[in-house]
Amino acid sequence: MKPNIHATGHFATIVLVALSASGCGVVHEMRPQAEPTCGPDGHGTLVGWAVPDRQADRSELASWCLAVGPPMFEAEPGQVDIARGGDRRIDVVSWNIYGRAGDVPQFLRETVGFDCDRQTGARHFVLLVQEGVRRSRGVPGGVAGTEVAIALDPASQVRPLDIIESAQACGLAYFYVPSMGNGDADHATGREDRGNAILSTMPLSDPLAIELPHEVQRRVAVTATVAPPAGGSIRAVSLHLDTFPGIARALTTGGASRERQTLGLLQAVGLGGPVTDLDLEGVTIVAGGDLNTWSEGQESIEHLLDAFPDSPAPDGKPTRSGFPTDHIFVRTGADSPLLALADSYERIDERYGSDHHPRVLSLTDAR
């Protein structure tokens, strides 16, 4: 029997109308929170938190907290030695390192010109990490559905450094906040969790964890202020948006899952409403991450380009599985000496063990 084309088209129209209508009532508003969502963070009030204002989001996120340990923050880098003049140009890198698969020291040595063994480099850099894995005895056992593992190596294979060990071995300042557990395995040195991080050759301050509206998994963006030695100020943001949530979830959000997370992020950063009390006047804001986008015309990218008007134009190059999932965005503060070099924006062809290509953008001191 032939399908009824008119009936099928009518059904599709109803579904689209339902998606649109349901999405109109879904909020993305964020609010500050004095206490960390997932218990003590080990830093007192040093790490700030922004969480969804919607109670349903907070309730859905709560179980994910059972599988993660505390954030980790190291404000000062070690005695890194940057070549003379290397503070006039700062590389900003965004990279989903796929757990322990991405070789951070090798990438830094071959692409950024930084030798972790000697802790010396050609110029300063900020590395925005997604899917960084941390192993610690402080990571508890979670609940089913919150500990999906990635990049697990065979037991006989020597595991590379985790994200905290990499940062410490390279002498970098760092800010790491886990989003979820990375498997339910017990190892000799503890369990694993994974999330976003910022690693820097320059000092970090004002760390803020941003727990995004819940869609598929718990996602916590991280942001901190970077202090270039030549002056000026950079607010760095590392984010990771969800994949497509499925039909059931789309029916409750109007298919606006990543858009809702993007708008919540912008509000928490300070570009869509007053959530933090940071003064962003004169501050250059750089946001990078894995948006899980399959085209550059998606609304999440359009919102970010509107909020970050000094961003380089998307180049259409795929960064994972043939899709342009990874991006960097820039907003130059009024009177900021730091400007983005549009012609420096590139996709690194080598993946260094990850399933994502890194993205690099350079800032220069225009004074």
Description of the molecule:
This protein has 367 residues and is of the alpha+beta class. It has one domain (28-365): 4-Layer Sandwich (Deoxyribonuclease I, Chain A). Helices cover 20% and strands 30% of the residues. The chain is built from seven helices and 17 strands. A hairpin with a 7-residue loop joins strand 12 (220-226) and strand 13. The relative contact order is 0.16.
Topology (SSEs and partners):
Layout: H1 5-24, E1 30-33, E2 48-52, H2 55-62, E3 72-74, E4 81-82, E5 89-96, H3 104-112, E6 114-115, E7 120-121, E8 125-136, H4 163-170, E9 173-181, E10 191-200, E11 204-211, E12 220-226, E13 234-240, H5 247-253, H6 257-269, E14 284-290, H7 299-307, E15 326-331, E16 338-347, E17 359-365
Parallel strand pairs: 2-11, 4-7, 5-8, 13-14
Antiparallel strand pairs: 1-2, 3-9, 5-17, 6-7, 8-10, 9-10, 11-12, 12-13, 14-15, 16-17
Helix pairs in contact: 1-5, 6-7
Share of β-strand residues: 25-35%
Largest sheet: 7 strands, mixed
Number of DSSP E strands: 17
CA-atom Rg in angstroms: 20 Å
User: Strands across the major sheet, in which order?
Assistant: 1-2-11-12-13-14-15
The low-pLDDT segments are 1-25
So how many helices?
Answer: 7
Superfamily at the CATH H level? Endonuclease/exonuclease/phosphatase
User: Tell me, what's the shape?
Assistant: globular
Helix content: 10-25%
Distance between the termini: 73 Å
Task: Please identify the structural class as seen in this structure.
Answer: alpha+beta
Identify the quaternary structure here: single chain
- CATH architecture group name: 4-Layer Sandwich
Q: What's the CATH topology name?
A: Deoxyribonuclease I, Chain A
CATH C-level: Alpha Beta
Order of helices and strands: HEEHEEEHEEEHEEEEEHHEHEEE
Number of domains: 1
**If you average the pLDDT, what whole number results?**
85
